[in-house]
């Protein structure tokens, strides 16, 4: 989990630094007939630029969510996929929160660097990818359950523990 969080955070910060250093907002490079464009934007809001006047509240919410993940979710994560989800979520939250704290116009009001664009969708960054993939992973885990090293699902493990206690 920690390795995913550190590598994911580093990848997000590195790609943002490269985007700021090399992308021209007036001349975005495009590939595959416009399917993929690197369009440099600075986003004061949340997804799809919603809440652009509430940057401080979004920043405080991110701090609260980071605390919830680190203090509540991480200690309860016992399975591989839960740990992976926690690491990805920490990487994503920290990546965008770093922008909100350290980028202009100032602490808790900083604009997030977004630069990945696909048609008919918001412009986003690597941190956003980690947050979105975490949401998808949590849904998949919720639907299909998690499996321990022996391939038993969560219901099988609970039943197996119950059977062992009854035999005693």
TrEMBL record:
<feature type="transmembrane region" description="Helical">
    <location>
        <begin position="122"/>
        <end position="144"/>
    </location>
</feature>
<feature type="active site">
    <location>
        <position position="114"/>
    </location>
</feature>
<protein>
    <recommendedName>
        <fullName>Lipoprotein signal peptidase</fullName>
        <ecNumber>3.4.23.36</ecNumber>
    </recommendedName>
</protein>
<keyword id="KW-0472">Membrane</keyword>
<comment type="pathway">
    <text>Protein modification; lipoprotein biosynthesis (signal peptide cleavage).</text>
</comment>
<feature type="transmembrane region" description="Helical">
    <location>
        <begin position="81"/>
        <end position="102"/>
    </location>
</feature>
<comment type="function">
    <text>This protein specifically catalyzes the removal of signal peptides from prolipoproteins.</text>
</comment>
<dbReference type="InterPro" id="IPR001872">
    <property type="entry name" value="Peptidase_A8"/>
</dbReference>
<feature type="transmembrane region" description="Helical">
    <location>
        <begin position="46"/>
        <end position="74"/>
    </location>
</feature>
<keyword id="KW-0378">Hydrolase</keyword>
<keyword id="KW-1133">Transmembrane helix</keyword>
<keyword id="KW-1003">Cell membrane</keyword>
<keyword id="KW-0812">Transmembrane</keyword>
<comment type="similarity">
    <text>Belongs to the peptidase A8 family.</text>
</comment>
<feature type="active site">
    <location>
        <position position="128"/>
    </location>
</feature>
<dbReference type="Pfam" id="PF01252">
    <property type="entry name" value="Peptidase_A8"/>
</dbReference>
<keyword id="KW-0645">Protease</keyword>
<keyword id="KW-0064">Aspartyl protease</keyword>
